[in-house]
Amino acid sequence: MLFSWLRARRRRKLLAEPFPPRWVAFLERNVRHYTRLPSPEQVCLCNTTRVLVAEKRWLGRGGLFVTEEMRVTIAAQAALLLLGSDRDFYPRVREVVVFPTEFRTPVAGDDWEDDFLSDTASAGQAVDRGPVLLAWDTVLAEAREPDAGYNLVVHEFAHQLDFRDGITANTPDLGDRPLETRWRYVMTVAFEDHRRAVKSGADTFFTPHAADDEMEFFADATEAFYCRPADLKGLHAEMYDLLSAYYRVDPLAWFGTENDNEGDSLSVRL
Ligand SMILES: [Zn+2]
């Protein structure tokens, strides 16, 4: 109780300060979503960004020093997922670990140093009750080009919301029972359809990786929702509406009706 009161006071103090103009420059240069948001949402994004930058521990690995620009660029994208909600600021994520490029996953007990490494290289990973690990080169490229349809930060922080809210293990809290029942049905059918399509070798809207399990499917669908809203709405209107009910935002209003999303290659994300 005392702790949460102190934290609320610290946050109020932080947000009473003017938003640093150089941070606005980072956002305008790196986070294309920011430039598309209406002004009240921009303010909300900036506030959440400040809290995330201040409260998370930012670790550079693989020889990388995490600059202020990197923190702001990453935090602002994570803040996109909190725009429409009164959810807390990823309270179970204490650390964000940034690598210069794709990395072979280090081990938790090793403080995310690289003495012990997994066999697979990836650009991102989210650990339940642990950190988010990110490759900076992918983060920056995708932050600047949301129309490509991918966003590594959105993907990994969607996993964190999933871990916390039990979205794929159960059903998210949508404040409406029939809607929650609908969610389970729509997402399960869409996931099974996608899995079958990937197995048959067909071209698919969602990535092949999204066929791995429902957690990957949800993270991938969240990327599509934020980066290719028009395409998602056109293809899966009901899924779009359900994601809109969960995130309480309407990215279509930010993007207009066109997405230009063809052709970019996708890095591995776990
Ligand atoms: Zn994933």
Highest CATH level, the class of the domain at 2-145: Mainly Alpha
Distance, first to last CA:
36 Å
CATH superfamily of the domain at 2-145: Glucose-regulated metallo-peptidase M90, N-terminal domain
Oligomer: single chain
Which fold name corresponds to the CATH topology of the domain at 2-145? Cyclin A, domain 1
Can you tell me the residue ranges where pLDDT is under 50 for at least 5 consecutive residues? none
Q: Radius of gyration, rounded? A: 18 Å
Annotation, overall tally of beta strands: 6
Helix content: 40-55%
- Biggest sheet record: 4 strands, mixed
Beta-strand content bin: 5-15%
Enumerate the distinct ligands: zinc ion
Structure annotation, total helices = 12
Q: From the coordinates shown, what is the CATH architecture of the domain at 2-145?
A: Orthogonal Bundle
Structural class by secondary-structure content: alpha/beta
Spatial arrangement of strands, main beta sheet:
1-2-6-5
Listing every helix as H and every strand as E from the N terminus to the C terminus, the arrangement reads HHHHEHEEEEEHHHHHHH
- The overall average pLDDT, rounded, is 91
How would you sum up the global shape? Answer: globular
Report on the structure:
The chain is α/β, with parallel strands linked by helices and 270 residues long. It has a domain at 2-145: Glucose-regulated metallo-peptidase M90, N-terminal domain (Cyclin A, domain 1), CATH 1.10.472. Helices cover 53% and strands 7% of the residues. The protein is built from twelve helices and six strands. The chain has helices spanning 2-16, 21-30, 32-36, 39-55, 68-80, 136-144, 152-165, 177-199, 214-227, 229-235, 237-247, 252-255, and strands spanning 57-60, 95-99, 103-104, 121-122, 124-126, 132-135. The protein has a four-stranded mixed beta sheet. It binds zinc ion. Zinc ion is lined by residues 155, 159, 216, 219, 269-270.
